[in-house]
Write a structure and sequence with these properties.
There is one protein chain. The protein is α/β, with parallel strands linked by helices. 47% of the residues are buried. The mean pLDDT is 96. α4 packs across α5. The protein is globular, with a radius of gyration of 22 Å. It contains 13 helices and twelve strands. Bound molecules: pyridoxal-5'-phosphate (PLP). The site of pyridoxal-5'-phosphate has 12 residues, from α4.
Length: 402
């Protein structure tokens, strides 16, 4: 894309291939080079003074901590794909969550946090925000416009994550955002599941969108990276807080994530196709009680998902019929293609035994059987199905106690 054509209206897939690339600035290289830089030298004192102009603090390359052409390239691309004003990178998804929250609250304020949030986000509220005099109330992910009843005069943040971690409830983002704004609060959302590509959060009222770029943006299980995308109004408050806290991203991680971004849409398409095939098969299995995947028509969140999302990623939950721990362990241990490990969003399939009931306070998790979180990768889904079939054989061999 020529620099004079950057204002043109291209479709998202075209933007994924072209944004953040400035070959003219890098001897024609297709990809921006990796800047390993702390000190950035100025040619003379006039240039030094110009770079230190505080109104340009986040626009120029003046110190590695504040950004380099590598990080600016990824920020430019991510923000445009989601339809936000600007983005900033952090060292992890969790750092993106905590910096965004810290930017929006002060002592005496109140946060409304979704009960199905990523566990460490809850830990941050309980262990850090409480020490700063910020109170948190957890709310039912399905609350919708009724969130208005929970708003207090000092509520500054309504935090969403949709679908929810481990349990995959789909939130009515627009209804919650409208109530939050009516009461003067900002809307923060962990949008990692959908990535900037499948949920354009700003069109639904979100002020600050948070991503663990570690997942689908990186896409290859070799990066730890966070990103925050904001509206114009929220950019400076959040960016300044991130700088004040000393957050930044590693250059190689930013580069890998930008490379991952180029194939985000094709990978997501395949993740969804494979995940649907495996999820549908799981629904037919006698060992399975429920599959928690909004892309399935039977899922309670399906209608909202269809209304708001542009597709589904490859992460979903499976509730098994009651089975002993040793039987479930035997099932998981028997799998050949599903890795046992934290994180998700890479090209490979993963499985974890989860405990959705743990930590919940506003809602309860009543399912009797064990819960699994499955990430469906880019393998052939038939192989994944056969692997899971073998796992179920082992579950029976050790013995279920249904
Ligand atoms: C929904 C969600 N948000 C944020 C994070 C945190 O990302 P990171 O591991 O990069 O800190 C995770 C990690 O698993 C996650 O699942």
């Amino acid at each position: 894309m020529k620099s004079e054509n950057r204002g043109r209206k291209y479709h998202k897939d075209t933007l994924l291939a072209h944004l953040g690339r400035h070959p003219e600035a890098h001897n024609g290289a297709v990809n921006p080079p990796v800047y390993h830089a702390s000190t950035i030298l100025s040619a003379n004192m006039t240039e030094w003074e110009a770079k230190r102009d505080s109104s340009k603090r986040f626009d120029v390359v003046r110190y590695g901590l504040l950004g380099t052409p590598t990080t600016f390239a990824l920020e430019e691309a991510i923000a445009a794909i989601e339809g936000g004003y600007r983005a900033m990178l952090m060292s992890s998804g969790l750092a993106a969550i905590t910096a965004a929250l810290q930017a929006c609250v002060k002592c005496g304020d109140h946060v409304l946090m979704v009960d199905s949030c990523y566990g460490p986000a809850r830990n941050f509220c309980e262990r850090v925000l409480t020490r700063c005099g910020v109170a948190t109330t957890y709310y039912d992910p399905l609350i919708g416009a009724d969130i208005a009843r929970l708003m207090r005069p000092n509520t500054r943040v309504v935090y969403l994550e949709s679908p929810g971690s481990l349990t995959f409830e789909v939130q009515d983002v627009a209804a919650i955002a409208a109530a939050a704004h009516e009461a003067g609060a900002k809307v923060l959302m962990d949008n990692t599941w959908a990535s900037p590509y499948l949920f354009r959060s700003f069109e639904h009222g979100v002020d600050v969108s948070i991503h663990a770029a570690t997942k689908y943006i990186g896409g290859h299980s070799d990066v730890i990276l966070g990103a925050v995308i904001t509206t114009k109004e929220m950019f400076l408050p959040v960016r300044t807080m991130a700088a004040d806290l000393g957050h930044c991203a590693a250059p190689d991680d930013a580069y890998f994530a930008l490379r991952g971004l180029r194939t985000l849409s094709v990978r997501l398409e395949r993740h969804e196709k494979n995940a649907l095939a495996v999820a549908r098969w799981l629904q037919t299995r006698p060992e399975v009680s429920r599959v928690l995947y909004p892309a399935l028509p039977e899922d309670p969140g399906h209608e909202l998902w269809k209304r708001d999302f542009l597709g589904a990623s490859g992460l979903f939950g499976v509730v098994l019929k009651p089975a002993s721990k040793s039987a479930v362990y035997a099932m998981i241990d028997a799998l050949d293609l599903f890795g046992i490990g934290s994180s998700w969003g890479g090209y490979e399939s993963l499985i974890l035994l989860t405990q959705p009931a743990r930590g919940r306070t506003a809602t309860s998790w009543e399912e009797a059987g064990p819960s699994l979180r499955v990430h469906i990768g880019l393998e052939d889904p038939q192989d994944l199905i056969e692997d899971l079939e073998h796992g179920f054989d082992q579950l029976h061999a050790v013995g279920s106690v249904a």
